From TrEMBL:
SUPFAM superfamilies: S-adenosyl-L-methionine-dependent methyltransferases, TPR-like. This is Tetratricopeptide repeat protein. Signal peptide: none annotated. Gene3D superfamilies: 3.40.50.12710, Tetratricopeptide repeat domain (1.25.40.10).
């Protein structure tokens, strides 16, 4: 029975999807503040490097097939805060420069539904060098409707058939957050699982996150023979579910499949999809599946149906690569929707090396364990994991206190490796909307290691970034650095600034007394 405060919807047309759009459009890049929307697992340097390796292999394959002159376009769907795109481009350029071999030119296009995100990327300091080199462009893209890519920087439009090279599509945490159909398989028949939204209040009266927290969903099956008709475009996939599943609720990615088909039309040569999500590609994982529950994180997400995407394109000659083992947090797949996909040897080897044997899901599983055991780790273990993660800033921030505690017993080699790691981390650091003073942590650790020149550099960056929030310790360390480097005029300047903040600072007063006695 339907209560007075609930309404019935087809699942893909329920108001939860309008709320999802509103959430991201209103918050822009602030949606990822405090990890409200999870981003680390698909935005760290390790996963970006794995994608870069696959793309680099693909670029090699195109040259080997005699297609090295035309540019390759890489489109990221739902680029969010932009951190992943930055790390991927940074690593791809490093691979290109290190290898020094012939490759097709490439251009990365960051897209998102939220225009605020597009505008924020365009002005982000870390992305300016890529824009200037012509490697990066942006587009607002609505995956549910748009058929072309209108590029912001170049002012050009990519339309049907414009691309001679295959299009590379990057889609992380994308398919789980766009509208999906919800079907139910029972007795060999297909039903739609309509959703009743309970506790519905006017959307304008609440923030999107508050609205999602207050509603309840319940489901009711409705016979849907249209899915069983030969005219239904994804009939081949549906028939598999009818044949092999029973009493199962299936999130069906009709919108995701349609989006991929539209993007495929942009190129004359197919596409390569590299994607990571909470998503199952194994049919067994959908057996006896219960109705979905919204996973709330400011917005919400569901499980992506990689099985449907994989099967649909495999039936059209594509090669789908997914790990043979079960995933824990994210499933990373690659679909080569190309002519003779088995000939893309370098692409396939890169996937095997960077996703299948040990991939982003394995790395994140290890990090979850390490997060709980940082305080018991030694310097060699900390340095090793930091290297494995591509000198990730988040791990450095998390382990800085432990590193500091270990410094008294660290040898010169370990200190030199710390310095090198800090330099590499800083060279590829992407500042998020919610800032963290990474330069301060780096500068203080280097000060403890008596690396005064390097410490001075990072501490001065920290002061310049937020001059109104400087603590007295920073000015004291800067003064000592300058004294050690024999830059006495700057040293006395920092001593005076220290005393302005803390007039009773004993060490500063002693230094000033010495200075006055020498006059």
């Amino acid at each position: 029975m339907t209560s007075s405060n609930e309404q019935r919807y087809r699942f893909s047309e329920a108001p939860i999807w309008d709320i999802q759009r509103r959430y991201y459009e209103e918050l822009g890049t602030k949606a990822w503040n405090n990890d409200q929307v999870p981003q680390y697992i698909t935005s760290n340097p390790m996963i970006a490097a794995a994608y870069a390796e696959v793309i680099f292999g693909f670029l090699q394959d195109r040259v080997n097939k005699g297609n090295g002159s035309e540019p390759v376009v890489i489109v990221e769907l739902g680029a969010g805060a932009g951190r992943f795109a930055y790390h991927l481009l940074d690593e791809l350029c490093r691979l290109r420069d290190y290898a020094g071999i012939e490759l097709p030119p490439f251009r990365y296009v960051m897209t998102d539904l939220a225009l605020n995100n597009v505008l924020a990327w365009k002005e982000h300091p870390a992305l300016q060098a890529f824009i200037a080199e012509g490697l990066l462009d942006f587009a607002r893209y609505d995956a549910a409707h748009d058929t072309v890519l209108n590029l912001v920087v170049s002012g050009t439009t990519i339309s049907e058939g414009d691309l001679k090279q295959p299009l590379i599509i990057v889609a992380n945490y994308f398919f789980d957050g766009i509208p999906q159909e919800l079907i139910y398989v029972g007795d060999g028949k297909i039903y739609e699982a309509d959703v009743y939204v309970q506790g519905l209040e006017p959307m304008d009266s609440l923030k999107p996150s508050e609205w999602l927290e207050r509603i309840n969903l319940r489901y009711e099956h409705r016979r849907a023979p249209e899915y069983e008709q030969e005219t239904y475009p994804y009939r081949d996939v549906i028939s598999i579910y009818q044949e092999h599943l029973e009493d199962s609720h299936i999130l069906f990615p009709a919108a995701g499949l349609t989006c991929l088909e539209r993007l495929n039309l942009l190129s004359q040569a197919g596409f390569v999809l590299i994607t990571a999500d909470k998503g199952d590609h194994l049919l067994d994982q959908w057996k006896f599946a219960e109705p979905p529950e919204l996973i709330l994180h400011g917005s919400f997400s569901l499980t992506a149906n990689y099985h449907a995407i994989q099967y649909f394109f495999e039936q059209r000659g594509a090669l789908a690569l997914f790990p043979p083992h079960h995933y824990k947090n994210i499933n990373v797949g690659c679909i080569l929707h190309l002519d003779k996909p088995m000939e893309y040897v370098n692409s396939r080897l890169a996937y095997r090396r960077c996703m299948e044997r040990f991939g982003p899901d394995d790395f994140f599983n290890m990090k979850v364990w390490i997060d709980r055991h940082v305080e018991s780790m030694g310097m060699p273990e900390l340095l090793s994991f930091w290297r494995l993660g591509g000198y990730d800033a988040e791990f450095f921030i998390q382990s800085a206190k432990r590193i500091s505690n270990l410094l008294p017993d660290a040898n010169d080699d370990e200190k030199q490796d710390l310095l090198r790691g800090i330099q590499k981390m800083w060279s590829s650091y992407y500042v998020m909307e919610q800032r963290y003073d990474l330069a301060l942590d780096a500068g203080l650790l280097l000060f403890e290691m008596e690396m005064y020149e390097q410490s001075k550099r990072y501490l001065e960056i920290s002061v310049k970034q937020d001059p109104d929030e400087v603590v007295s310790t920073v000015y004291y360390c800067l003064a000592i650095c300058c004294f050690e480097l024999e830059i006495e005029e700057d040293a006395w300047t920092y001593v005076r600034k220290l005393l302005e903040l803390e007039p009773d600072h004993e060490e500063a007063l002693a230094l000033m007394s010495q200075f006055d006695s020498n006059i």
